[in-house]
Amino acid sequence: MMTDAMTSRLRPVQPGKTTLVAVLDIGSTKVCCVIARLTPRPEGKALKGRTHQAQVIGFGYGPSAGVKSGVVTDIEKAEQTIRSVVGMAERSAGLTLETVIVNVTAGRLGSETFSAAVSLDGQEVEEADIRRVLRAVNERSVRPERSIIHALPIGYAIDGQKGIRDPKGMVGDKLGVDVAVVSSETLAMRNLELVLHRCHLQIEALIATPYASGLATLVDDEAKLGVACIDFGGATTTVSVFNEGHLVYVDAIAIGGHHLTLDIARQLSVSVADAERLKTFYGSVLPGQADERDLIPIQPVGASHDEAPGQVARSVLTRIMRPRIEEILTAIRDRMQATGMMDVCGRRFVMTGGASEMTGLTEVARRTLARNVRMGRPMGIAGLPEMAKGAAFATVAGMLIYPQVCAKEYAEPRNSRKLIGTDGYFARVGNWLRTSF
After folding, report:
1. Would the pTM of this model clear 0.85, i.e. be above it?
2. Beta bridge partners of 252
3. Could you tell me whether strands 348-352 and 202-208 are parallel, antiparallel, or unpaired per DSSP bridges?
4. Distance separating alpha carbons of residues 247 and 179, to the nearest angstrom
5. How far apart are CA 386 and CA 168, in angstroms?
């Protein structure tokens, strides 16, 4: 079971070795499972942090059920969906999965920065000192109602001198560290774990959805200079901020692309399926010159097939969709301003996620956020099907990159299981034999 403390949940991939990794993206509109082979790659000028090349060998995909905004709402439906998608990926890869890396969107995802310092007494900084200062942060940040997903050291300081990347071997009186801690409500994650146990799957690691999206879509210089990545999902929009190459902030709001679909369905009195089709084929958040003249056929909900379809101008659709998009962008901007992250993220935003592919979104985002905006697509993943190369699959691609970068995180050392001693394995077997016979 997961614990509230920072636990080592994923062993980083070894340099120079090939390994298999399986990821499961559980979203509100889709569930996707990818099995990939990570093979070593030479250090290149682009994507410097990546040590391996991901080659997809198994892919499964299907509509989501029993999950809303990352929260399990119907355990039976969620189990059936996950079983179906994982089975599809297993058949195409020709193997059976036991563990998966899973993304987390639920549980009021949030982040805080914690600081701590320990005394060095003028000695050199050793590995034990770094562990000691990180453990001090751990003790301050753990709360019973929230589980820590990531604990990323974002900078060390010696005697108040900040900006040190690796303090090992340096001399000083006091060693300090700042750690970005990403956490989520424990109960929401336990329900996710319960569903996977029913599918006979163990969670190998958890990764916050906005972190995964950022890993997949950002280039090295963006992450170094400061950038924010907005992932427009089905029922949740998440944001991650990177600076100096580190993740420093995440947030999530429970509004996404599906809310646009519901707005269209209510305003035009059409079915949800028809509203989704109208949004995909005709939807835009930027008015055009011919929008008043362009007429779109609509079938009112409950109308019989022999009735003639109604018509609305394309401009009506734009006027329904634009306020919702502006609401999402304004909420993100206000939250980031309240935490000071609009200054940290520099002058750049990257948009990704399935709902980000709407016509005119980047223009509206530029005006609302007053920043440079570009569309982000997953980079550096080979073998994905054509349908999975778009922005909707950025989280999946980021989850394949995560095993290559997870060594940067702090993890509480696991206690190795004792085989002998008073509470060791052999002692318990001996005790059972004595009491049973």
Report:
1. yes
2. 238
3. unpaired
4. 10
5. 45
